[in-house]
Specification:
single chain, 332 residues, alpha+beta, Heat Shock Protein 90, 2 domains, five-stranded mixed sheet, 8 helices, ATP binding, membrane, kinase, Sig_transdc_His_kin_sub2_dim/P, nucleotide-binding
Length: 332
């Protein structure tokens, strides 16, 4: 088919040159053969382009270089054929080099795509292994708790086991292999479901209100996940046990400079003078420390509803965090 197409292109060029012969001035024997050579070279390759160039040169020499219908070689015909050869060889070589460069580029793109796919698979496998290892650590802490007779030590180990297990459950969602950031609405929805399910509560109504297309940077993913998870777990443990219609909502506001993430429950059990700084809660101390790592702040307010609010810069980045400000039970 390629050979047929090559001969057809040269034949069409010959027919067009014959058709235009009466309207063209002398000195244009190769006018229609140049496009034929270029077209064949682009579509079929340099080999077929060279054949088209050779056929076009022979036909032009025979039909259109005076004296016509002969292969007489004189100074004029020799100059014309030399000019034709120079042009078509240049055209064919340039097209060949461009096609080869495009081939190398296509091969490199395929190789890069394969490497990116392999990287994504390795990243997912790493996250899977990290999650499994964290779950194993949580199991070991739970086993160790059963051997401890001191109630306070047992409670501390149980709390640590729950936190490590939760991090293991959400670790695969914390990082994105393409580093484009996490979709915040989907991230918070999955996080809320994970924490509620981990606490064995199926009776809690859940809601996430978040602006669309809002992203969470890779640097912010872990501290935000831990602070929000701690707030949800704290609401479940201390805010909702006796409520007839327990509900937890995550509300997100963004103004271009800051992101405000609020975990709201309808427990309303905080005392009027409650502040995060005054509590001895280890969980709230951890949340405060992690909020500072993002360059933001964390506060809990009460009333008809209890609201744990994390404020962080919308751009990625943060500041070094100070050590935890206190230890104790996770009381609100």
């Amino acid at each position: 088919m390629a050979w047929i197409a090559t001969i057809a292109a040269v034949g069409l060029a010959l027919w067009l040159r014959h058709a235009a012969d009466a309207t063209l001035p002398s000195g244009f024997p190769f006018l229609t053969f140049f496009p034929a050579v270029i077209l064949v070279s682009v579509l079929l390759g340099a080999r077929y382009g060279a054949v088209a160039a050779a056929l076009g040169g022979v036909l032009s020499w025979y039909y259109f270089i005076p004296p016509a219908y002969t292969f007489k070689l004189d100074a004029g015909s020799l100059a014309a054929m030399g000019f034709y050869a120079l042009v078509v060889v240049t055209d064919v070589l340039i097209i060949h080099w461009l096609q080869r460069a495009n081939g190398y580029l296509a091969a490199e793109r395929e190789r890069n795509a394969a490497l990116a796919h392999t990287r994504a698979l390795l990243f997912d496998e790493l996250q899977h292994r990290v999650s499994n290892n964290l779950q194993a650590v949580a199991g070991l802490l739970a086993l160790q708790r059963r051997r401890v007779t001191d109630p306070q030590a047992a409670a501390t180990l149980a709390e640590a086991s729950q936190r490590v297990a939760l991090i293991g459950r959400i670790s695969r969602r914390l990082y994105d292999s393409d580093e484009n950031g996490r979709d915040l609405a989907a991230f918070l929805t999955a996080l809320l479901d994970d924490v509620v399910e981990a606490n064995g509560r199926s009776d809690i109504a859940r809601r996430v209100d978040c602006p669309p297309d809002l992203k969470l940077s890779t640097e912010q993913a872990l501290p935000v996940a831990l602070v929000v998870a701690e707030s949800i777990a704290n609401a479940i443990e201390h805010g909702l046990p006796d409520h007839r219609a327990p509900a937890i909502a995550i509300e997100v506001l963004a103004d271009g400079r800051e992101i405000q993430i609020s975990v709201v429950d309808n427990g309303g059990t905080l005392p009027p003078d409650f502040t995060v700084e005054a509590t001895d809660s280890l969980g709230l101390s951890i949340a405060t420390m992690l909020a500072r790592q993002t360059g933001g702040s964390y506060a809990v307010t009460g009333g008809i509803e209890t609201r744990a609010c994390l404020v962080l810069p919308q751009a990625s980045g943060g500041h070094p965090a100070p050590p935890p400000i206190g230890k104790g039970s996770d009381d609100r």
